[in-house]
Amino acid sequence: MAITAIVSHEVKDFDTYKAGFDANEDARIAAGIAATAYRKLDSPNTVYVIGKGPSKEVFDEMFGDPSFNQFMEDIGVILPVVVTLLEEGA
């Protein structure tokens, strides 16, 4: 069953973040994740990423990877990142 992730965090500059997010699309595709980044209307440096992936393990692996965490910092993500994983109810 597909998993939906809602990831929220602050960024230093949305345009810099978005360029890095877009450049990382191939890595998401390789992991089987489709995701879109949104910014909060009244707080332009607050970001929500909503994505779907094949399993909880795929998201755990991505967010547990030190190089991915370094990449996020490099594109201006301000830690901590809040990751909420959801599965569709039956």
- The percentage of residues in β strands lies in 35-45%
Helix content: 25-40%
Order of helices and strands: EHHEEHHE
- Poorly predicted ranges: none
CATH class label: Alpha Beta
> In CATH terms, what is the fold-level topology?
Alpha-Beta Plaits
CATH architecture identity = 2-Layer Sandwich
Radius of gyration: 13 Å
Shape: globular
Q: What does the main sheet amount to?
A: 4 strands, antiparallel
Say what oligomer this is. single chain
Strand order of the largest sheet: 2-3-1-4
Number of strands: 4
Number of domains: 1
How far from one another are the termini? 11 Å
SS-derived structural category = alpha+beta
Description:
This protein has 90 residues and is of the alpha+beta class. It has one domain: Alpha-Beta Plaits (2-Layer Sandwich). 39% of the residues lie in helices and 42% in strands. The protein contains 4 helices and 4 strands. It has helices at residues 14-23, 25-31, 56-64, 66-74, and strands spanning 3-11, 34-40, 43-53, 77-87. Strands 2-3-1-4 form a 4-stranded antiparallel beta sheet. A hairpin with a 2-residue loop joins strand 2 and strand 3. It is globular and about 35 Å long. The protein starts with a strand and ends with a strand. The model has no long low-confidence stretch (mean pLDDT 95).
